[in-house]
Amino acid sequence: MKAVIEIAPRGSVFSTARNQLKAAEASPRFGADYHLIFESARALFTELTPSRIDLLEALRQCGPCSVYALAKTVGRNYSNVHTDMGKLEEHGLVQRTPDDLAFVPFESLEIHLALIKKAA
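RE: above sequence
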């Protein structure tokens, strides 16, 4: 499974979704199983900080584990990891097993950042 994170201007979510569906139909092997859209690069990087991305990588490597075990693995404070995991779950990038172990359900995560030229 693949997750794609993109930036789309406010109000363009529906047109972006329509374009993504068309692209997935035209080339299914490049389609994503999950899309997450932010309105700006600032919003994206406020929510997906380097520490949170590091947690996704660590969790993907160690497999399903408790937040406590993950905090020990990455050498961070439990409370901070717990907060970061809550945000990652909120955005659908982390899920829980029936035993309440956290895991990343995606094999890959792509962040698309289009650079747009402003009109003069």
